[in-house]
Amino acid sequence: PVLVESLLVFAVVLSVHAVVWDRFSWCAVALAVQAFYVQFKWDRLLQLGGAVFQFRGAANSGLLPASMVIPLLGVVMKERCRAAGIVYFERFGIVVASTGMLLALFLSVLAVGITKPVPTNTCILTGIAGSVIIYTMKHSLTVSEVIEVLEVLLIFVYLSMILLYLLPRCFTPGEALLVLGGVSFVLNQLIKRSLNVVEGRGDPIDFFLLVAVVGVVLLGLFFTVLFIFMDSGTWISSMFFHMMTAVLGLGVIMPWLYRLIQRNPLFWLLQFLFQTQTRLYLLVYWTSLAASACGVVLYQNAKRSSESKKHQASTITRKYFHFIVVATYVPGLIYDRQLLYVAAVLCLAVFIFLEYIRYFRIKPFGQTLRHLLSLFLDERDSGPLILTHIYLLLGMSLPVWLFPRSCAPKGTLPGAGALVPYSGVLAVGVGDTIASVFGSTVGEIKWPGTKKTFEGTMTAIFAQIIAVALILIFDSSVNLNSSYAWILASVSLVSLLEAYTTQIDNLLLPLYLQIMLMA
Hints:
Layout: H1 2-20, H2 23-48, H3 63-84, H4 87-114, H5 120-138, H6 143-166, H7 173-195, H8 204-226, H9 235-261, H10 265-273, H11 277-306, H12 315-335, H13 337-360, H14 366-373, H15 388-401, H16 423-441, H17 454-474, H18 484-500, H19 505-518
Helix pairs in contact: 1-2, 1-3, 1-18, 2-3, 2-4, 2-5, 3-4, 3-7, 3-19, 4-5, 4-6, 4-7, 6-7, 7-8, 8-9, 8-13, 11-12, 12-13, 12-15, 12-16, 13-14, 13-15, 15-16, 15-19, 16-17, 16-18, 16-19, 17-18, 18-19
């Protein structure tokens, strides 16, 4: 399975390389080759328990698929913005690609350094790939861009040491690279933009995303350190938690956002949410869907209580939430993407805050949340945190957040790029859901070395093609310009990757589909 997963990632890398064909795509190929070899060193370290931190079990390291996501996103973003003539975001794409390559190289060097005996051939390969990448960066980046890349690397190193120690068994090395690398990049962007505020420059919704992500992460770090010294399950600790949340929110996060958008954040948010009648209808509709999701959770828990034997939610039951998320995102993508962008940010902040309440057992809801959510645990929730629902939200939202709006003057990219915001809906909402439902009910022929079935994968591909046809009918802004073969190849590659990867598919699959569609 690891070899097939690697082969599929190489197919994506070579597809992007064939389209872009510049020095950065060559660097991506070099990075993929060395990550393939280093991945086996990480896998061996995980099996022998010599990987410094405790990583998630029942999965391989996932270094190769994770290492290629950020560099390839940067490469395709650079190419799209270069074609649109937007120099600022073309340079931004180069910085993203360079940062991703440097983070992946750091993780590779770490694995090689702690492997005993020292793997000579892998060291040589990593050295050659690193030299090619650093040489390219030296001749492509300005001094300020080099400093920015190194800042992200420094934040990543410190953040990794803190969070991987505090949260054992929550991530594989690849997932840690993706999640912590993304958070490090967001934190650096927020610091950079806070120090260079120019009135009227920048979209407020972008600042809202940056401040929300950094705010909830800093909130979690603060309470994690605090509750080392006191019991978090008491009423006094719970009151202190709510009080400090209000103080940090109103005293730090709000003024920070005010400095960036130059207006009162609460008034701006209320004005933004209720600006048009369409937004009101969407908010009412989304509220009803949220209530129905809560109803599913309560019903399943009532069902568990009424049964004498231990009851656990089935795969099909868990996929109800995928259907609800699809029903949430599709109207937002068709009628008001900016509202969907902001609503997804708010939802992410709420999800993470509720996870803090559950994890720290904050009264009065902490223990209740633990009981309600324990029903939906699977083998990927082996650490102290429950992250699968947050990964689902991220997988659906990242294509919306990462869509290069400034490089799409008409609000959409030409050709297959028009489907980029729908990457999460197609890969996770439709593909992953249909594959799981049909694979677990009618699937008989298993892919070699996995539990996934041939019938599930083929049905997923077929369902995504039907979904693309429906998007063409209902969303008039989408014009594929006869790029149907590329879309079919992209969907097929990502569906096969879903069958073979042991990483969090909710996070990985939308990003790979976005890369292919943007290329």
